[in-house]
C-alpha cells in the first residue's frame, strides 16, 4: 500500500528546509518528490510500505531529524485520509487554559486545584473523584465569574478556528467533548465553530455554584462513547474519524478514532497516541489529512 510521511513545523518557526526533505527521502528510501503543503511549515512525501510499518518508520524519521522542531507522522494514504467526524477535547487542547484552574483562581485556590488537575491529566489519579473534589472547592462562586473568565482569560489555541471551519467546509461533523463544563464549552464551541458540544453540568444554587456536578460525569468512557455514538449516527467507518486531546481522560477516545492525535500532551498520552504534535499548531491536524494551506477556511 501507499504510506505518506507528513512533516509539520510551527508557522511561527518554519523549519522544513530542502535539507530536511532530502534527509526524509533518504531515511524512508523513497524516490517520490515532496509535496509542499505550506512553505517551510508543512510537507509530505509518499512511500511504499505496509500500514503496520508506519510506527517504526515514524520513529526512525523522528530520530534522524533529531532536535529539529518538526512533528513527524507516517500514515496510510488511503481513501479515508480526510476524516468525516472530528471530536476534540477543550482544555489545554482547543483552548490554552484549564478552565477549572482559572475558576479556582477566583477563590484563591489555583495552585492547589492545578496540582490535582495535573495529576488527573497525567493519569496518576482517577478523573471522576478528582473532578468532584475540585468542584466542591468552588462552592458559592458567582456564576457571573465564568462569563468574565471567558472574556478576559480564555484564549483559543492557534489554528483551532481554522481547523474546525476547514473540516466543516469539507463535510466533516465536529463535536467539542470535554471533561470540563457546559458553561464554558457552549461559548467556546461557538467561537471555534463546532456544531455540537458535550461536557459536565455544574449544579447551581441561584446565581452561585453549588459545589457539585451533575452525574454521570463526562470522563474517559463518555468521550469514547460519544465518538462511537456519532460514528454510528452518521454511518461512518472507524477510519473516517479523528480525535484530538492532551490528557489521560482522552486516551480511550484517541484509541477509538481512526486517527488519534495527542496535542502537546502529557507523556503517557503522547506515548500511546497514533500521532503526537508537539511543535505545530492545530492546523497540523489538517496537514495530517493532506490539506494544503491554500485549502484552509479561515
Structure description:
Helices cover 40% and strands 22% of the residues. It has 298 residues and is α/β, with parallel strands linked by helices. The chain has a 6-stranded parallel β-sheet with strand order 7-6-5-10-11-12. A 4-stranded antiparallel β-sheet has the order 2-3-1-4. The chain has a two-stranded antiparallel ribbon with strand order 8-9. Helix 9 links the parallel strand 6 and strand 7 (196-200). The longest helix is centred in the C-terminal third of the chain and has 14 residues, at 220-233. The mean pLDDT is 97. It comes from Methylobacterium symbioticum. Pfam families: HAD.
Blueprint of the fold:
Blueprint: E1 2-9, H1 18-28, E2 35-38, E3 42-48, H2 54-65, E4 70-76, E5 85-88, H3 90-94, H4 99-105, H5 110-121, H6 127-136, H7 144-152, H8 160-169, E6 173-181, H9 182-192, E7 196-200, E8 202-205, E9 208-213, H10 220-233, E10 241-245, H11 251-256, E11 259-263, H12 267-272, E12 275-277, H13 284-288
Parallel strand pairs: 5-6, 5-10, 6-7, 10-11, 11-12
Antiparallel strand pairs: 1-3, 1-4, 2-3, 8-9
Helix pairs in contact: 1-2, 4-5, 5-6
EC number: 3.1.3.3
Organism: Methylobacterium symbioticum
Family: Belongs to the HAD-like hydrolase superfamily. SerB family.
Amino acid at each position: 500500500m501507499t504510506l505518506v510521511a507528513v512533516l509539520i513545523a510551527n508557522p511561527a518557526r518554519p523549519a522544513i528546509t530542502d535539507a530536511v526533505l532530502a534527509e526524509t527521502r533518504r531515511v524512508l528510501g523513497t524516490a517520490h518528490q515532496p509535496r509542499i503543503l505550506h512553505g517551510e511549515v508543512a510537507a509530505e512525501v509518499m512511500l511504499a510500505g505496509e500500514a503496520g510499518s508506519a510506527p517504526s518508520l515514524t520513529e526512525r524519521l523522528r530520530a534522524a531529524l533529531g532536535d529539529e522542531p518538526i512533528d513527524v507522522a507516517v500514515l496510510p494514504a488511503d481513501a479515508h485520509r480526510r476524516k468525516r467526524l472530528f471530536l476534540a477535547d477543550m482544555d489545554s487542547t482547543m483552548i490554552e487554559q484549564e478552565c477549572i484552574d482559572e475558576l479556582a483562581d477566583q477563590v484563591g485556590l489555583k495552585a492547589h486545584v492545578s496540582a490535582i488537575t495535573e495529576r488527573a491529566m497525567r493519569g496518576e489519579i482517577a478523573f471522576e473523584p478528582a473532578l468532584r473534589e475540585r468542584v466542591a472547592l468552588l462552592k458559592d462562586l458567582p456564576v457571573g465569574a465564568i462569563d468574565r473568565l471567558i472574556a478576559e482569560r480564555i484564549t483559543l489555541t492557534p489554528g483551532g478556528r481554522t481547523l474546525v471551519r476547514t473540516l466543516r467546509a469539507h463535510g466533516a461533523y465536529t463535536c467539542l467533548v470535554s471533561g470540563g463544563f457546559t458553561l464554558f464549552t457552549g461559548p467556546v464551541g461557538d467561537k471555534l465553530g463546532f456544531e455540537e458540544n458535550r461536557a459536565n453540568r455544574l449544579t447551581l444554587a441561584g446565581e452561585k455554584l453549588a459545589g457539585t456536578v451533575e452525574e454521570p460525569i463526562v470522563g474517559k468512557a463518555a468521550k469514547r462513547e460519544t465518538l462511537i455514538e456519532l460514528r454510528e449516527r452518521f454511518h461512518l467507518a472507524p477510519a473516517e474519524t479523528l480525535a484530538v486531546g492532551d490528557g489521560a481522560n482522552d486516551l480511550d477516545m484517541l484509541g477509538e478514532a481512526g486517527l488519534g492525535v495527542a496535542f502537546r500532551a502529557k507523556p503517557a498520552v503522547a506515548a500511546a497516541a497514533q500521532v503526537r504534535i508537539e511543535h505545530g499548531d492545530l492546523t497540523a491536524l489538517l496537514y495530517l489529512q493532506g490539506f494544503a494551506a491554500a485549502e484552509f477556511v479561515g
